[in-house]
Amino acid sequence: MLRLGPKNVRWFVMGDDDTVFVTDNLARVLRKYDHEQMYYTGSLSESHLQNIFFSYGMAYGGGGFAISYPLAKALSKMQDRCIQRYPALYGSDDRMQACMAELGVPLTKELGFHQDKRKDAVKKVIAAMTVGKDVSSLFTDVLNCMQTENLELKKLVYLYLINYAKSQPDLAILAVNTFVKDSQDPNPLIRALAVRTMGCIRVDKITEYLCDPLQKCLKDDDPYVRKTAAVCVAKLFDINAELVEDRGFLEALKDLISDNNPMVVANAVAALAEIQDKSASPIFEINSVTLTKLLTALNECTEWGQVFILDSLSRYKAADPREAENIVERVTPRLQHANCAVVLSAVKMILQQMELITSTDVIRNLCKKMAPPLVTLLSAEPEIQYVALRNINLIVQKRPTILAHEIKVFFCKYNDPIYVKMEKLEIMIKLASDRNIDQVLLEFKEYATEVDVDFVRKAVRAIGRCAIKLERAAERCISVLLELIKIKVNYVVQEAIIVIKDIFRRYPNTYESIIATLCESLDTLDEPEAKASMIWIIGEYAERIDNADELLESFLENFPEEPAQVQLQLLTATVKLFLKKPTEGPQQMIQVVLNNATVETDNPDLRDRAYIYWRLLSTDPEAAKDVVLAEKPVITDDSNQLEPSLLDELLANISTLSSVYHKPPEAFVTRLKTTVQKTEDEDYVEGTETETSGNPVVGAAPAAAAPAPVAVPDLLGDLMGPDDAAIVPVDDYTTQSGPPLPVVLPASSGQGLQICAQLTRQDGQVFYNMLLENNSQSVLDGFMIQFNKNLFGLAAAEPLQVQPLQPGASARTMLPMVLSQNMSTNSVLQVAVKNNQQPVWYFTDKIVLHALFSEDGRMERGTFLETWRSLPDSNEVLKEFPGITITSIESTLDLLAASNMFFIAKRKNGNQDVLYLSAKAPKGVPFLIELTAMVGQPGLKCAVKTPTPEIAPLFFESLELLLKP
Q: Beta-adaptin appendage C-terminal subdomain domain: which residues (predicted)?
């Protein structure tokens, strides 16, 4: 070809007869190289064996290769002699490489430079990455594919970078120039893609390089680029909030609210709202000017843009009722939207503004307008129905008139999933009234004959709740319950007895005539709650039941084998019978029961109550009557179970996970706002020595606040940031207080890997404090961790970040933990740790309960006493610690306060000190603690009272860990 003297030739491209060239791509690739220099460029074989057999410096004809004109000219002068020297070489590509070697021109590798092979290769890498394979070793090779005009390939490379930039931060910075170049590309899609990816690469070294391109993109001519840049500001704020404020990005974001493109406005609002959630200072405040702009953009946004704007507007408080009415009028059309999220966001917005509207006519009209869209949500898929029902449950507690006339839409269908049926039952109870109770009872009666046992129980209990709620309908509810009892289905009968017991408590001395019917089912009772309910009824109305002693005696036959709930109720009912009928039969029964409850039982609650009754009866029977037979307060309707303040908070979070869980966001979301702990002086004041039976004695002097734990210096930087590796060399971790971490995986069991770990709490966050030591002869990297289901749903909040461990090296990490909904009855931590060089290691660790105690666990003295009295005696658990010695009350209280166990009061009991403390476990479970000890003498007695006594052993383990020397 060269001898023919072609003109304007820059490159010669060779390939096999089956090689397919994509000429546009070929031209783009060759344009990168100087055609006036000697270049030999192409790709290796896809076969590893071929490359080994021939050479890794050779371009194959199957993939095609190119040589520049100057190289071709030099090659033409020696090609014939070169081929003669290597007659055994097979194939032109093999011979060509031999000649190139003589000329000293190396191969410039360009993977699939004329085809889409690079894209296919990167796709395979991404596929492997997606299923969890470690392909980080290909980081440099994938990075080389960034400089392409193929948008699909560029997206794949960016996806790879986002995933591995954190583990390869030094290499990731090499991509910055390409990012900056792409942010100035003529194609707006590429500009937006570059800024979006830079925001997703959560590496501190890259953030400063992101600022200039981001500033340009926020003012870009293309709205797609601007809306992408708006979201990127929120991502950058999450990485470096100070940088965002210093560079003026927040002001630029606020300016975008005035943008003429509604999607840009929506993204700016979404970004500002997210930034506000993470900032302790006011960032996004809506005024009347901003309000007008957002309402204007609302009509032109996409559906998700409307959700962002509506959610932000729901935080706005109108200046007066007139403004609130105007806002609602602009938002009301959104109720007709096809997207359920838009509808719920509009409902939330309207409900918030209705608080300020004073006109009853306007409120009545708004309630009528909100009913149809809420009803329409119930015709969607079951999953959407469930979310809608959970939100409606909150709405009808606040505004029952909205759906008061739509109760029929909540009637259960035969093919509804059980979770939908259960929610519908709850709402039907809340909407039940004297006008519709007959319809509701017919439905409940029908549900009580279905096959799903849990649903049937819920339906029967719903009838009882309606009776408690509606006094005028109580008799009709009882009639339905009696009809169900006559069906003789065991679990229906037992559930009916349970709810009738509650009806008796709500309406005492009103419906005793049905007791005879209930007594006919005594022999079929086998559930503890049903037995206890029936026994309570017999004891409460013993004077009106002729054979009450015989009925109770039938239960007493198996007294030692009965559950504690039944035993306690039997004890009280027998005492009531004796006080109401002090004849020979009841007297013998009470002696048998008291003997069994005091001598032949290991249950301290039962034994203590029996002793109290025994002393009351033996010293003053009249006083016993005043105590045991005292008039009891009637129970109240529990259909509106939420406190008003909590309900208002949940209504402000309609259409979010909070409204589905019926919990405030802080109960299940880790907030990243910085908290500052203050240390206060503490004065411990002794209380009086006056005791009250069954309740802790709280001193008359005010109990001062316990000292907050002194904050540990932040050696790890922004520990709450999700991107910090949180790794500290062991030698530098000098401020770690307390004993060394316990060994959970010894080196002998981990092939040289030793792990020490323990749950800990720092700045209001639970961490898994880990020390990893590499005693093997090889480098260990790629660490990952997994926690099995456990009692509190403890799980890792982010991946385990541990740098490669050299032989003999060690590293310490604080792994943030979250309390998920994935729980089991497992009271230990079962942990799996793996790395790239070893098998998966499994070990167990204790759940250190005091690490889970929250900072808001302090109780007022009155609340402490009230809570102690409200909890049954069966919820009190005792334990003695003979190996613990209290040397100083003050230092002990300081130590416990540092673990969020707060001092309430102190009193003297002889020569012993009695301390009362409170704590709060996850899900708001209170722990009421009584410690009794003599200063300087061995021995500590602890009594703890809590709604969940089954986790008391964990508390005792934690207490021993803290106080035992």
A: 853-964
